[in-house]
Each structure stands twice: as C-alpha cells, then as structure tokens.
C-alpha cells in the first residue's frame, strides 16, 4: 500500500512538472513569459555540435553511396549489421565483368587474338574488383565506423544532456514566474483596506514568496550544474574534429592506393594489348587485316586495332622502326599524360613535341623535348608526323 501511494505521488509530481514545463514553453512561444538565455560560449558550442552532426551524417551517407552505389545492397548490409550477423560475400561488378570476359575468351579460344585479349582484360577487371573490395573494407573500418560512432554514440549523449538542460531551463523560468506572481500578489494584499484581511493575506503570500524563493534557488543550482555538464561535453567536439581529420586522411590514403592500383593495372593491360600483332586469325581461321595507314603520315600504332574502350593495340614493327630511327622526329600527342616523376615529361593532347631515341632506354619509351623541357614519354601516347 505504501509503495502504491509512493508511485501515485511520484506520478502526480512528474505530471505537475511536465505541465509546468509545457505551460512555460507555450507562454515563451506566445511572448507572455521571459526566457533565460544561455551564455554566448555555450550557444556557440551547441551550434558547432549541431553543425558537426548534420554534416557528418551527410558525408557518411554519401560515402556509403560512393562505396556501394546499389541501394538494395546497402539496405541488406544495414539489416545484417543490426542483426549482428556478417553479410554474405557477393561478387562485385568489376569481378563479374572480369569473369564474363574470361569465360568468353576461353570460349572463343585463348589462341586467338580476341580471345586472348578478353582473358587479359578479364583478369585485369578482377584485380580491379579485388582492389575495390579492399577500398570498401578499409574505408568502412577507418572512416565510416568512426563517423557512425560519433552519430550513434557521442552525439546521442550530447543530445540527451542538451534535452536535460532545456528541461532545467524551463523549470528555472517557471520558478522565476511563480516568484514574480507571488511577490505581485503579496504587494496587492498589503494594499487592502481591511486590517484583518491584510494580516492574513500578508502571512499567506509571505509564506508563498519564501517557498518560491527556495524553489528558485534549487532550480537555479540544478540549471547551472546541467549547463556545466553540457558545456564539458560540447567542448569535446574539437577533439572529435581532430579525430575525424585523421580518419579523413586514412580515407584519402585508401583512395589513393586504390586509384594507383587501378592505373597500374590498366597501364599494364594497355602494354599487353599493344603487343598484339595487327594481323591475326579469327575463330573461323580466316585472316582479318587491320586498316592500312596512309602514306602521308606514320602513326604509332596506326595499324593497330583500337578498341571501344580507347586502348590502342600497336604494331611492333612500327615501334621497332621508331626506336631504330636516327635523329629526332616531330610527334603529335594523342592523350594527356601526367609525369610520374622528374625523369618524365607531362603531355597535353594535340600538342606537337620533338622525340628521339636513346640507347639503352626501355622499348616503350622515347625521349621527348618541348622547348627547354626534356623527359621520357610513352610511345603509345604519340603519333609520328612527317
């Protein structure tokens, strides 16, 4: 029975507190009650935390889209994560394309030029798929997980304490309002003409004023304490930014590794395709001849097959002629090229440079010269001019 009485009293007290906060909040919105303003430093910290939360969510979600464009796959991974189970491993798009290419090349015949090229392309696509998988795993561990931990952990704690601060502020302002009303009633009572009523009313309202002042001191103390707790939590946002900066560096490094791998894979593939002869046997053992270059120009790889992906399969005879020619030649640049180091020369598509061979240089490179600039340039990026 005593426990039931206690629960009823607690429920009534909580309901009274909730009603008091609701009334105070409504009167503030209507401009009928004063509101205690937080100090400027605390307001700035709250704004910074909210801004951090909003942009962290946006960056996190868009990174997930970047790493996994398939929305159904993202939902599936989310469900498995909530069930605390490991999502089943699935083949990604580059790996699937690579497998199709390898199967097609095997079917057409590895001894044919097209079949061999398909197999080589398929193997490269599968390597890219593996690199893509490693990028996703590394980015999820080193970048997405810390961002998610902030949203689901640290910021939830901040939001909880911020809500408590809001409630303590409403309690404080409600106490100020009650004290203000009690003092106003005490003043009116002192002005009554009846000496008996004046004495009774003064005593009643004096007690009410004392009670309101005590309540105000308590609510003020609780508000100040909660404001300090919230401030300490919010000041940790700067540390959060520093941690997220380190995570961002890890993400950039993972992307750099991935794109460097892809570039190297495709560069190797281009060299392999460039070594194919211009004349080859098809599956039906009929000879297919590549287009013959015109007499007006000697194009590096002009007798090669140009695939729809833009890769050029260059005739080895032209490369040998170019490497063995004496003196310098003018050449037009076919594609932009960024120098990998100081020994190479960066190129812009359609510019004309001077090229010449150097004894002992790798067969895939020539020495290029543009004004006072000189460096190695890849043969497959050039077109010789008369």
TrEMBL record:
<dbReference type="GO" id="GO:0008289">
    <property type="term" value="F:lipid binding"/>
</dbReference>
<dbReference type="InterPro" id="IPR050384">
    <property type="entry name" value="Endophilin_SH3RF"/>
</dbReference>
<dbReference type="GO" id="GO:0005741">
    <property type="term" value="C:mitochondrial outer membrane"/>
</dbReference>
<dbReference type="InterPro" id="IPR004148">
    <property type="entry name" value="BAR_dom"/>
</dbReference>
<keyword id="KW-0053">Apoptosis</keyword>
<feature type="domain" description="SH3">
    <location>
        <begin position="326"/>
        <end position="386"/>
    </location>
</feature>
<keyword id="KW-0175">Coiled coil</keyword>
<feature type="domain" description="BAR">
    <location>
        <begin position="27"/>
        <end position="282"/>
    </location>
</feature>
<keyword id="KW-1000">Mitochondrion outer membrane</keyword>
<dbReference type="InterPro" id="IPR035695">
    <property type="entry name" value="SH3GLB1_BAR"/>
</dbReference>
<dbReference type="Pfam" id="PF14604">
    <property type="entry name" value="SH3_9"/>
</dbReference>
<keyword id="KW-0728">SH3 domain</keyword>
<dbReference type="GO" id="GO:0061024">
    <property type="term" value="P:membrane organization"/>
</dbReference>
<keyword id="KW-0963">Cytoplasm</keyword>
<keyword id="KW-0333">Golgi apparatus</keyword>
<dbReference type="InterPro" id="IPR027267">
    <property type="entry name" value="AH/BAR_dom_sf"/>
</dbReference>
<keyword id="KW-0472">Membrane</keyword>
<dbReference type="InterPro" id="IPR036028">
    <property type="entry name" value="SH3-like_dom_sf"/>
</dbReference>
<dbReference type="Pfam" id="PF03114">
    <property type="entry name" value="BAR"/>
</dbReference>
<comment type="similarity">
    <text>Belongs to the endophilin family.</text>
</comment>
<protein>
    <recommendedName>
        <fullName>Endophilin-B1</fullName>
    </recommendedName>
</protein>
<feature type="coiled-coil region">
    <location>
        <begin position="158"/>
        <end position="185"/>
    </location>
</feature>
<dbReference type="GO" id="GO:0000139">
    <property type="term" value="C:Golgi membrane"/>
</dbReference>
<dbReference type="InterPro" id="IPR028503">
    <property type="entry name" value="SH3GLB_SH3"/>
</dbReference>
<dbReference type="InterPro" id="IPR001452">
    <property type="entry name" value="SH3_domain"/>
</dbReference>
<dbReference type="GO" id="GO:0006915">
    <property type="term" value="P:apoptotic process"/>
</dbReference>
<keyword id="KW-0446">Lipid-binding</keyword>
<keyword id="KW-0496">Mitochondrion</keyword>
């Amino acid at each position: 029975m005593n426990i039931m009485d206690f629960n009823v009293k607690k429920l009534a007290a909580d309901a009274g507190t909730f009603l008091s906060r609701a009334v105070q909040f409504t009167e503030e919105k209507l401009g009928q009650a004063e509101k205690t303003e937080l100090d400027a430093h605390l307001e700035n910290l709250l704004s910074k935390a909210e801004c951090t939360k909003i942009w962290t969510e946006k960056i996190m979600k868009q990174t997930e889209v970047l790493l996994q464009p398939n929305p159904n796959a993202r939902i599936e991974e989310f469900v498995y994560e909530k069930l605390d189970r490991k999502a089943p491993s699935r083949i990604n798009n580059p790996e699937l394309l690579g497998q199709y290419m390898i199967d097609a090349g095997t079917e057409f015949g590895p001894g044919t030029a097209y079949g061999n090229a398909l197999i080589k392309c398929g193997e490269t696509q599968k390597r890219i798929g593996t690199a893509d998988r490693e990028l996703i795993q590394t980015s999820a561990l080193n970048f997405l997980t810390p961002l998610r931990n902030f949203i689901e952990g640290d910021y939830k704690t901040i939001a909880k304490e911020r809500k408590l601060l809001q409630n303590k502020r409403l309690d404080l302002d409600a106490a100020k309002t009650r004290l203000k009303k009690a003092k106003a009633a005490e003043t009116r009572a002192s002005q009554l003409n009846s000496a008996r009523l004046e004495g009774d009313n003064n005593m009643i309202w004096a007690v009410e004023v004392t009670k309101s002042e005590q309540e105000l001191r308590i609510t003020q103390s609780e508000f100040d304490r909660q404001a300090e707790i919230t401030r300490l939590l919010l000041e940790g946002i700067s540390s959060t930014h520093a941690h997220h900066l380190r995570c961002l560096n890890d993400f950039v490094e993972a992307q750099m590794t991935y794109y460097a791998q892809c570039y190297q894979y495709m560069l190797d593939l281009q060299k392999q395709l460039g070594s194919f002869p211009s004349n080859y046997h098809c599956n039906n053992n009929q000879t297919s001849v590549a287009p013959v270059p015109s007499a007006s120009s000697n194009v590096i790889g002009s007798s090669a097959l140009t695939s729809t992906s833009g890769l050029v399969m260059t005739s080895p005879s032209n490369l040998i002629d170019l490497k063995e020619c004496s003196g310098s030649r003018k050449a037009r640049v076919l594609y932009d090229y960024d120098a990998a180091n100081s020994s190479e020369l960066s190129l812009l598509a359609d510019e004309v440079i001077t090229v010449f061979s150097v004894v002992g240089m790798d067969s895939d490179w020539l020495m290029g010269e543009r004004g006072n600039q000189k460096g190695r340039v890849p043969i497959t990026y050039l077109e010789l001019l008369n």
